[in-house]
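We modelled each protein-ligand pair independently. The example shown here corresponds to the zinc ion entry; the chain sequence is given first, followed by the ligand as SMILES.
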Amino acid sequence: MRKVIPITEFISTEVKNNLALYLLLSFVVISLTSFQTVPTEKAKKFKVVIDPGHGGKDPGTHGAYTKEKDIVLKVSLKVGGYLEELLDDVEVIYTRKTDTYSHPKVRATMANDAEADLYVSIHANAVGNAAIRGTETYVMGTKNEGRNFEVAKRENSVILLEDNYKEAYQDFDPTSPEVNIMFSIMQEAYQENSIILATNIESQFSKRAGRKSLGVKQSSLWVLWNTAMPSVLVELGYLTNAKEEKELNDPKVQDYLASAIFRGIRDYKKYLESTK
Ligand SMILES: [Zn+2]
């Protein structure tokens, strides 16, 4: 009977060491490759931050019986739902999904940390004149005249709810019309894309959702100023207009509004892909 010699005996120590080294290197290479694959796949996702305005201790504005924070949450969840359901390569990040308060700074940081592709803040409007109704979509800008300034003051005023706002928002005085006159280079780069998205949304509001569109506007809104990506702030309508307040409470109208915002985002994404 021939003695079976274990294969290891044929291999010199040097070869064994080389073999061990080879196995170790293979393991490292495989590990690195798999580590690289995961983030690449993740990076392909188009990240949309949906920011339902206000919440918790900050109710926003109100109509005869409606709080802004409640209406905007309902529509925001519907927008996110459409994005998740109808577009495979989109990741939705909500700044809130319930009636909770979060600092505007936390919301902006959340979007910046996630390196989001888009920031969509959803609000409802109010004004002294009860006849005024319609949708508006804001991009960051320096034109703070008339009603745009009123919107900026109101939407920024949440910052004043915070005890330490002077410390936390040093360079941003939400009551000053001179605020943010200077544009950073970064903001200017996002401006063009923000306007494209805002135009898409307003066009969808009037053409598909049958809303009265008051158009794309510019205002110095804190949250838009502090997000490092194209960002818009949508005003769904005026709670101070009796007809519009009633409509905004109608789940069907909420669906139309959400669907219009979804289509605006979808078309914006298609536009970006076509320019690649
Ligand atoms: Zn608001």
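Residues 53-54, 60, 68, 123, 155 surround zinc ion (CB under 6 Å).
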